[in-house]
Amino acid sequence: MINLKEKATELNKISNFLDEKKLIEDLKAQKSAAFDALYTKYASILYGIILQIVQHQSIAQKILEQVFINIWNNIEQYNPTNSNLFAWMRDMTHTLAHNNKENIIKETQNANSDKISSNNSKKNEKNQNLQTQFLVSQEESINQKINHKIIIDLIYFGGYSVENVAKEFNLSVENTKNIVKIALNQLKNNNK
Q1: What is the C-alpha to C-alpha distance for residues 192 and 189, in angstroms, rounded to an integer?
Q2: Is 31 helix (H, G, I), strand (E, B) or coil?
Q3: Where are the domains of the chain?
Q4: What is the pLDDT of residues 114-124, one digit of tens each?
Q5: Is the CATH code 1.10.10 the one for domain 121-192?
Q6: Architecture in CATH for domain 7-107
Q7: What is the rounded average pLDDT of the residues 140-155?
Q8: What are phi and psi of 65, to 5 degrees?
């Protein structure tokens, strides 16, 4: 007896493979529509990976921009026999994020020390601390939402198993399942 779920999954994988193959061909032909499709499909996932490494939104956005520039400029070097497109881009993303993390941290620390030394009054320092605390808590909330979205995208749309996603994000399988439950409940509550 044919299992319809397995057959649908198999057909979906074939469709995704053909779509990815066409996407790669169009990228190698330098078609801007292919770049737009690539960005739409993978930007949020790659951004989440970068954000986990550098833990700062503006820095992650700069690195994401550099990642897509590198993908566009180096697509000819991509070899589908070595890895799938996402794995190739993920490896490039990890490398750029880790290479840029130390430089960006130094720049941020220098900028922060300049700001702090220019503030002479205690009132300004208190206000700045409150603003920083607010921004950090706001950023943490956004990061959590982004990570939840990335995990949902990978599991439900990327075809990854919970175990693979857990491994990629250095989480336990149980924590990953809990994140999925929380994210789905949030979606359910938002759609009421």
Answers
A1: 5
A2: coil
A3: 7-107, 121-192
A4: 555 555 555 56
A5: yes
A6: Orthogonal Bundle (1.10)
A7: 64
A8: -60, -45
Token pair belonging to 92: 């490039």
Output the DSSP codes for 58-122: HHHHHHHHHHHHHHHHHGGG--TTT--HHHHHHHHHHHHHHHHHHHHHHHHHHHHHHHHHH--SH
- The rounded distance, in Å, linking the Cα atoms of 130 and 181 is 33
| pLDDT the model gives residue 1 | 47
pTM score, two decimals? 0.51
What per-residue confidence (pLDDT) applies to 91?
Answer: 92
**pLDDT at residue 144 tops 60:** no
The full DSSP string for 69-82 is HHHHHHGGG--TTT
Residue with tokens 């220019």: 118
pLDDT-above-90 percentage for the chain: 8
DSSP per residue, 148-175: HHHHHIIIIIS---HHHHHHHTT--HHH
